[in-house]
Design a protein that fits this description.
globular; single chain; mainly alpha; 6 helices; 128 residues
């Protein structure tokens, strides 16, 4: 399923806010995000691909504390700037060979697993 650009950007912002701000999401945050992603028509697999291959390579830079614990607080983000950067990343990825992203994809999967995305995926199944 191909999301319209406006809905895709909404999914980017939902996932970035949940996983990449320096806050600890609570049950309500996971439930709200799951309901909104389901409303957009995304299933778990689609949302996971968007998180891993579109959002994490750009917004994941904020997760430097997984590797370097002295990174400062990221209190928010400019939605238009973030969407522009993610869009550019998606276009670069589409234009290049898939093998070029092998190591980046492996790192993104490891990084995202540290964020316990299963909390979101289980709520998406409940919301469906």
């Amino acid at each position: 399923m191909e999301l319209m650009q406006e809905k895709r950007e909404e999914a980017w912002l939902l996932l970035a806010e949940l996983f990449f701000l320096d806050t600890e999401p609570d049950e309500l945050d996971y439930r709200r995000t799951a309901e909104n992603l389901t409303r957009l028509g995304l299933c778990r697999e689609e949302a996971e691909k968007i998180l891993l291959y579109e959002v994490a390579p750009v917004a994941g830079a904020n997760l430097g504390y997984l590797l370097w614990p002295v990174i400062g607080e990221w209190a928010g983000f400019d939605a238009a700037d973030l969407c522009g950067k993610i869009g550019a990343c998606v276009r670069r990825r589409a234009a290049g060979p898939r093998w070029r992203y092998f190591w980046q994809d492996r790192f993104m999967r490891w990084m995202v697993r540290q964020l316990e995305p299963e909390k979101l995926w289980s709520r998406m199944q409940d919301a469906a």
